[in-house]
Amino acid sequence: MRPGWFVYASLAVFLIASVFPFYWSFLIASGDRFTINDPNMSWFPGGNFLANAATVMNNPAVNFWKALSNSIIVSTTMAVSTVVLSTLAGYAFAKLRFKGSGPLLVAVVATMAVPVQLGIVPLYILMQKFGWTGSIGAVIIPGLVTAFGVFWMTQYISQSLPTELIEAARVDGCSMIRTFWHVGLPAARPAAAMLFLFTFVTSWNNFMWPYIVLDSQNPTLPVSLSILQANYFVDYSLVLAGVLLATVPLLLLFMFAGRQLVSGIMAGAVKG
Fold first, then answer.
1. Based on CB atoms within 10 Å of each CB, which residue in 69, 133, 177, 222 is the most buried?
2. What angle do CA 68, 74, 80 make, to 5 degrees?
3. What is the pTM of this model?
4. Cα 33 to Cα 196: distance, rounded to the nearest angstrom
5. How many other CB atoms sit within 10 Å of the CB of residue 57?
6. In Å, what is the CA distance from 166 to each residue of 102, 152, 182, 269, 272?
7. Is the separation of the CB atoms in 47 and 28 below 8 Å?
8. Is 76 helix (H, G, I), strand (E, B) or coil?
């Protein structure tokens, strides 16, 4: 049964609502500092976007390229680490039997109820004692794995991976690691792809902790772009030009990883 006009109309409305903020940001970013307050603002882009983008990238106070490289390193490292460690932990909680697995999983999930803000002060003191303040290691190390990632992978693997496949692999002589690599990991691919995207985007947009623990010489992208709003007069054409520049890597990631996510889901559906 083919979807009707209502489904396509709903998708069109959702698409327009999703794209409009980007288009509005591009309109302001392609104008000048007076565009945002102009009641007769044109709904067609101006010709200043490249100039505004160049101003942001060449601003020594913003330190754009250093911040961009730091954000890529931090987000990629944290996303890869979270996927690997969460998949291993999720496989263990879901399919291995060991004493205390239930209470331990409950303890891991319970940490999600603790507000992040409560750990800022002790975490900063700890980073200071280690001598890591000002370095991106202070941002990466505390986020190498998350309780949400462990819970997410545990739930997915427990429901999508039949225990009979694991038992069959063990009967064929596979070790625990080989069973995880050849049986558990392929089954967890869709959930792992989603977790990678979620963790990367969260790390990329994280502002509070990098703002606290890093200095102006070694910032991440959200921290460096905040400098554009630190003046008495805020030029929103420059601010939104910087925001769009920071969004481009995320769009490229979704274009690439989105296909992998959909293919993994479809492969799992066909096998199931």
1. 222
2. 130
3. 0.87
4. 37
5. 14
6. 20, 20, 10, 19, 16
7. no
8. helix
